[in-house]
Amino acid sequence: MAGKVYLVGAGPGDPELLTRKAWRVLQSADIVLHDDLVPRAILSVLPVTAQVVNVGKRCGAKGISQDEINALMVQQAREGKIVARLKSGDPMLFGRAGEEMEALRAAGTDFEIIPGVTAALGAAASAQISLTDRRHASRVVFVTAHRESGTGLRNEGHIAADTTYVIYMPGHRFAELATELQAAGIGAEIPCAVISRATTTDETIFRTTVGKLQECPAAASPSLLVVGIVAGIVARETSAHDVPFSSHANEEILQMAQQHPYHDLHGRGSVE
Question: Annotated active-site positions, please?
Fold first, then answer.
């Protein structure tokens, strides 16, 4: 019997933000091929019967190529296995889903997409930043800093004042990004926030302005940068929230995750 591949969104990090459908598929998977940025809190509640393989690629250090990942999905499905390709956030946003769907179609492999909460929405919720606000922001742009040509903001010739930018994968290039943002027409006084490991127990938030962005300390991956008037609306009111969660909170999150209605209640003792 032919198997099937599921491209599954893991969400931004909190296991409770997995959709019910994602959880159900993960519990029935024979093999889970996960990105490096999928947090341990999610991997730890996969079923003990599943083979779990890290196929992540970070900072140019590729342990496995995209072509090899594509071939592995096809091979495992042809062997009749249920394959979960687990991606951080949402598979369809900066997740190479386009390349993987193309390879699966070419091989005649049955597949399905299961959306997830993308990092921008998880980070905005944690930082209490409304990406749109009828008084200040009617336009949201998602871009990635992980490109040879920069973030792509140079193409924004006349940036509207009511635009919120969410920059995925900024790395530690804060001084360079500050220069690029201002060259694109975004003023030095515009508020911004760097949110690292959003919705997890290791979350940190650094609020500043474009002009002072280079002063941001190195942020652990995954992180993203929110730029726009809305990023500064609640800065003074939410300073108390801009600290990592406690270890006690971490234990509570894992306990709640293991009690999810679709979990088999056995948990997963270790991951590969």
Answer: 35, 57, 169
